[in-house]
Amino acid sequence: MSESTDSPTDFIRQKVAADVAAGKHGGRVQTRFPPEPNGYLQIGHAKAICLNFDIAKEFGGLCNLRFDDTNPEKESDEFVRAIQDDIRWLGYDWAKICYASDYFEQLFTWALQLIESGDAYVDELSPDDIRAYRGTLTEAGKNSPYRDRPVAESLGLFQRMRAGEFEDGKMVLRAKIDMAHPNMNMRDPVMYRIKRLHHHRVGDAWCIYPSYDFTHGQSDAIEGVTHSLCSLEFEDHRPLYDWFIQKLGIFPSQQTEFARLNLTYTVVSKRKLRTLVEGGHVMGWNDPRMPTLSGMRRRGYPAAAIRSFCRAVGITKTPSTSDIALLEHAVRDELNRTAPRRMAVMQPLEVELTNWPEDKVIEVVGHNNPGDESAGSRKLPFAKRIFIEQEDFREEANRKFFRLKKGGEVRLRHAYIIKCDEVIKDANGEITKLLCSVDMATLNKNPEGRKVKGVIHWVSADHAREAPVRLFDRLFSVEKPEADKAREFLEFVNPDSLTATTVLCEPSLAEMKPGETCQFERIGYFCADTEESNLGHPVFNRTVGLRDSWAKQDQAS
RNA sequence: AGGCGAUUGGUGUAACGGUAGCACACUGCCCUUUGAAGGCAGUAGCACAAGUUCAAAUCUUGUAUCGCCUGCCA
After folding, report:
1. Where are the domains of chain A?
2. What global pTM score does this model have?
């Protein structure tokens, strides 16, 4: 699943292509990615980022990064910075970085214009009354008593709102549309509210802030965005989006909605991710189990794999839940091509090579990537005492088990074929050690007259380095943690999603730099953690395990 | 007096009136100094009903099911 060069042909790209062909906006294409800086980006945002930036690129257009910072309540510079880092890491760069807050003055002027044209009014109803007057899904709302106040009065009040003459929540500016509209968003939506909050960019310059609806389309218009792509929940807002543009007579950006991404065995809503962090269910926003970009980055997911995944799930209007296995496939696919191979043993079983001279140490050569000659090779020490994986030995097993068994032979990866002659056990009958003999004629050579099928990994006991490892499993133990409305999603958090253990690894692994990823042969892909690794002492995160068809087969039998 | 949108194998998608294809997952076989990767094969699908048409996944209507909407959030 490498990133293909031919472009996808989803309905949005078809629409953009048709617009270009028709000469709309002179064939110009411009998009934007508009996050609110109130949280960390997650895999769902990655889908939107890829869509917007890729479309701009494919059609020779521009894509801006625009922070939708109209509500200072939960917004901060920390998020502004983290979002930029995540987007760059994903592999994208913006034409311009914009802030809705840069348009506050213009927005205010436009609000004045709508008041003057009789399309907006200052309402003094309380929040509770506004709700009550709005009506319900099946009943029309009713007009506010302030709805038909004179234009001049609204004008004066709105100016005074800005001047800070009224308390928070005392009044709002509303669009005058239709309180009986079947679309709730058209029942005189709020355009401005009074909030005495410090804004991360404009400071205390304003005490009134525009709403999303009165900001987004105008921001698109100011920047000249031709295609304003957003998720399905804004479908109901499109009539409003168009209404403001039409009333204001500004550049007609067009909004198109697509389904957001959902993933099995996880949650992606900001609120729920926050709950996981604040409830201590994970170590933080960048916990490797989190579907955040920072979490996936820390876990070792390559940016290219995430892009590839986003391309694979496509863009539609059908709400759906993608299988996390598809994401994992994209990760393995990328890592299989790029990650150097190494050897490490998770559950060591000592093996003494009886016919190997006591002090003899040789170096064998291991290829870094069998599928990529250019990846080169490294040397591995081989000596009398080695460790193999406990599960690679069975005293007795059928022929399906082609690893080491008593009296049987197996290939040590990159080294010799050995034969198990004797099994040493302790008083409890637990296997403590294997005595094996080496077939000296089999280094990088197959024996004559017999075929040895199994290959297992190993490390030299005297040369192995011990390193901490964290194994991650799915964050939730059910496919759709949000599906059961009667139960809180937290009930489904997988108690075994994190396992801390250690590995014995080949010497070269001690040199792994934080953030680097390799494959532990026959086990999985691991990266050196960026937070907890020290020079010469990596702490490994298991990015994803290798596919294991033997485990399935063994389990089935 | 509700509105808007959606519905194609287990999952995610393609098709734009003319043989339902791809990927993931799953199953079997081959290959292999990673039981990985790779190769080959296989299982499995148009929500339902009417209508238009020589011909419907595709157009029309109805039904069902699901999603979103009653923040001074975005």
Report:
1. 104-210, 261-341+467-557, 344-457
2. 0.96
A321 burial (CB, 10 Å; 0-12 / 13-18 / 19+) is middle
Task: Say which nucleotide is closest to residue A73, CA to C1' distance.
Answer: B73
* Architecture of the domain spanning A261-341+467-557: Beta Barrel (2.40)
What is the rounded distance in angstroms from the CA atom of residue A356 to the CA atom of residue A408? 18
Return per-residue pLDDT of chain A as tens, 557 residues.
Answer: 444 446 789 999 999 999 999 999 999 999 999 999 999 999 999 999 999 999 999 999 999 999 999 999 999 999 999 999 999 999 999 999 999 999 999 999 999 999 999 999 999 999 999 999 999 999 999 999 999 999 999 999 999 999 999 999 999 999 999 999 999 999 999 999 999 999 999 999 999 999 999 999 999 999 999 999 999 999 999 999 999 999 999 999 999 999 999 999 999 999 999 999 999 999 999 999 999 999 999 999 999 999 999 999 999 999 999 999 999 999 999 999 999 999 999 999 999 999 999 999 999 999 999 999 999 999 999 999 999 999 999 999 988 999 999 999 999 999 999 999 999 999 999 999 999 999 999 998 999 889 999 999 999 999 999 999 999 999 999 999 998 888 899 999 999 999 999 999 999 999 999 999 999 999 999 999 999 999 999 999 999 999 999 998 888 77
| Spatial separation of the C-alpha atoms in residues A209 and A192, rounded to whole Å | 6
Q: In sequence order, what are the residues at sequence separation of 6 or more whose Cβ sits closer than 8 angstroms to the Cβ of residue A139?
A: none
* In chain A, residues 452 through 471 whose Cβ sits under 7 angstroms from any atom of nucleic acid strand B: 453-456
**Strand B: which of residues 265-324 in chain A lie with Cβ below 7 A?**
312-323
Nucleotide nearest A214, CA–C1', reads B74
Answer whether any strand B atom is within 7 A of the Cβ of A329.
yes
Residues of A involved in catalysis: 36, 260, 270
Smallest CA–C1' separation from A180, nucleotide: B1
In strand B, the nucleotides that come within 7 Å of a protein beta carbon are 1-8, 10-16, 23-28, 32-38, 66-74
Cβ(A503)–Cβ(A345) below 8 Å: yes
C-alpha to C-alpha distance for A340 and A356, rounded to whole angstroms = 29
Tell whether domain A104-210 is in CATH 3.40.50.11540.
Answer: no
Domain A344-457, CATH: 2.40.240.10
Domain A104-210 identical in fold to domain A344-457? no
Rounded CA-CA distance A520/A527 in Å is 10
A182 touches strand B (CB under 7 A): yes
ipTM of predicted complex:
0.97
